[in-house]
Design a protein that fits this description.
Layout lengths: L2 H9 L21 H5 L7 E4 L2 E4 L5 H21 L2 E5 L4 E4 L2 E3 L3 E5 L18 E5 L4 H17 L4 E6 L4 E8 L2 E8 L4 E2 L9 E2 H5 L3
Parallel strand pairs: 7-8
Antiparallel strand pairs: 1-2, 1-5, 3-6, 4-5, 6-7, 8-9, 9-10, 11-12
């Protein structure tokens, strides 16, 4: 382990975060997929070629939006026996040695693991949803970085949910890249190319009473 980390762990006061815990884990860049998937707890942590990326803790409003979307999609998918809908934290493989944790994930029946009880991650997805957290870094992650990663993974549809502007952008995969299908705003009904008869009030996505 890094001697720098050891010196930091010895130097910090007892009431500081337990930096020494980091000494129990691999250095950045050396993590294996198994070590990542065996991490304890339910934190939002993504994996990128040996590196761990710790995501910001979702706010209550963020979680309410994600839960409502999950609940509505779950009811739609279950009624039609189309597959299954999952919520973060749950790793989704998006490439060799790369995992992301979308807020909501739909996996069609044909793509589901043979025995869902025995897997730690999903290897495929048909639709992913990200609720954008505040801050320029988080916007770049969802609008730029994850747009590229999810397209490379062949995920057919990507929804970007923007709480600040109350908008939902639906991106559709065509020829290996995402094209903007539509931007849905208050007063409109959210639609989907993957689910042609799906409708959900945009107002309902962002309003809770």
């Amino acid at each position: 382990m890094s001697t720098t980390l050891e010196s930091i762990a010895r130097a910090v006061p007892d009431r500081q975060p337990a930096w020494g815990i980091a000494l129990l884990f691999p250095d950045q860049g050396t993590w294996s997929e198994d070590e990542y998937l065996d991490l304890p707890g339910n934190h939002l942590i993504e994996f990128n070629e040996g590196h761990l990326e710790v995501l910001p803790t979702p706010t209550p409003y963020h979680q309410m939006i994600a839960f409502h979307l999950h609940h509505t999609l779950h009811d739609y998918v279950k009624a039609r026996q189309l597959g299954a809908v999952f919520s973060a934290p749950l790793p989704v493989r998006v490439g060799p040695a790369k995992y992301r944790e979308p807020d909501v994930v739909f996996v069609s029946t044909s793509q589901l693991p043979a025995d869902i009880r025995r897997v730690k991650q999903l290897d495929r997805a048909d639709l992913v949803v990200e609720v954008v957290s505040d801050g320029a870094e988080n916007r770049t992650r969802d609008f730029v970085e994850k747009r590229a990663v999810y397209a490379q993974a062949g995920i057919a549809e990507y929804w970007i949910v923007e709480p600040n502007s109350a908008e939902v952008s639906v991106l559709v995969l065509k020829h290996g890249q995402y094209e903007l299908g539509a931007v849905y705003r208050r007063g409109e009904s959210l639609g989907s190319v993957l689910f042609p008869d799906f409708e959900m009030s945009v107002d309902a996505v962002f309003t809770f009473e």
